[in-house]
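Batch job 17 of 40 flagged for manual review because the log was empty.
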Amino acid sequence: MTMPDPQRVLVLGNPDEGVAPPSVLSGESGFEVETACSHDEAYDRLSQNNIDCVLTSVEGARTRTMDAIADHPDVSVCIVIKAGPQPVVLELDPIRTGGQLANGGQLTTMPGKRTMLSHQIEAAVTSEQEALNRSTPDPEKIYERISDGFFAVNRVWEYTHVNSEAAALTGRSQTELIGTSVWDAFPELVDSPFEDALRRAMESGETTTVEAHYPAHGIWYDVCAYPDDEGISIYFRDVTERIARREKLERENERLEKFVSIVSHDLRNPLNVIRGALDLIEETGDTAHTDLGLRGVGRMEDLITDLLQLAKQGRKVEATEQVVLADVCTQCWETVDTQSAVLEVEDGDTILANKNRLKQLLENLFGNAVEHGGDEVIVTVEPLVDAAGFYVADTGPGIPESDREKVLEHGYSTSNTGTGFGLSIVSEIVTAHGWQITVCESESGGTRFEISGVSTVES
């Protein structure tokens, strides 16, 4: 006959709010016990969908940690109403728990019930004092049921208990560590965030937590230290994957914010063209200016299509085509509000590029030249002499040598009205093609952007 798997209980506390997990479950109880010391830990454990019951104290039920169970209505929730040698445990409605207790509601508003599960947990819950009073305690059985790594350290910093999970996480055997000083066993802890947290727990008598990278193992640990009269109990786990997921989410959020900024910036030029055409029609009544406005509308449609494609495919340009550089320059000049500025472009090179992305690049360079060089600025586009590529130069005031690398960074602008994204967009498009960009001084003292590594087509 196959024995059923033991139920897995997640014991919740929140040291940051001064709430330790409730009394320990007995090693003979038949439960598998895990602990969570924060909202993120509880959320991470519950997301694995293998928790049968959440156990916490009355105080713990009023912390933000309980909000983590809101998305798990099938998980039973038990609260230790009375601790000590004769504990009282009630099973609560998990759907209501996060909404009422975690937000400061009164326990009396929570309907409790007596179930087989609550009776089993009540029978298994023991207070710390009761455990200490046992004539033949067997702490090893308790520690081995904890899925976290567990160390017990006395007040002279010697290991007194080490569970198998701690040995596996650290690569050190239980017999090797017990009786050894923490600082002798792991000298790399000295001057680390972990040392600070452990010493504060030992000296202040307050629970401490720390999440930090441990270079010696190349991983991130989440550590909770609970002090008592004998020393400190240390629970820790490898959270490298959780950190990686969090960092990935942060990168995605940053990329989304950057993308939104790019979209808003690139749409501004054709919008200005459309607005200018409408103003001319209103002033003169000549509908011939409609063509100018329609070109701006068409450019906006192209930009939206291309930017949406960029959002799906990332930064790398996958498809290129043969593009006559001079023709594209002329088209882009018409979609930018260039006032009375002049474009000088040399006929010649046909290059391999993504045409829409190249248009974005040129429009941003032309717009930058006019913005900083004034209405009379002259912009020149010619092939590079000593490399495969082209340059865009202007007769404006130029960029100081110390700022030439900074101008390609997101958010950098020397104008009070600039967004700081135009040239960084240029840099991203260059990188997406596998090209290189250099900022230097033009012959007239203005700015020259050299774009090299460009594949050309033999005529």
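Reviewer: the log was empty due to a logging misconfiguration, but the result itself is present. The CA atoms of residues 124 and 205 lie 27 Å apart. Unflagging and moving on to job 18.
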